[in-house]
Amino acid sequence: MLPEEPTIDPERFIITVFCTIDDFFCQSCPKLRQRGPAPTLADSEVMTIEAVGEFLHIDTDLELYA
Q1: Would you state the pLDDT for residue 16?
Q2: How many angstroms separate the CA atoms of 63 and 21, rounded?
Q3: For residue 15, what is the DSSP state?
Q4: Do 15 and 45 contact (CB within 8 A), yes or no?
Q5: 48: Cα separation from own chain's centroid
Q6: Among 25, 6, 27, which Cα is nearest to 17's?
Q7: Mean pLDDT split into 10-residue runs, the chain, 66 residues
Q8: pLDDT given for residue 41 in this prediction
Q9: Whole-angstrom Cα distance, residue 20 to residue 11?
Q10: Given this model, what pLDDT does residue 66 score?
Q11: CA-CA distance, 17 to 55, in Å (whole number)?
Q12: Helix/strand number for the chain, H first, E second
């Protein structure tokens, strides 16, 4: 019998990805959006949504926000 692979619950996975991306943005990147109306989401939040969506093979924005 093969040992079970360690799993992580989705909420913890998303939080871990967010913290990693947010730390990166805080340390090494200027704000990506400089003009226009004030954004609703922070750059790190947008990047987290996109990264988790790619990892989960979610292809459309509608699926991402569902």
Answers
A1: 94
A2: 21
A3: H
A4: no
A5: 1
A6: 25
A7: 72 93 81 76 88 86 71
A8: 86
A9: 14
A10: 67
A11: 11
A12: 3, 0
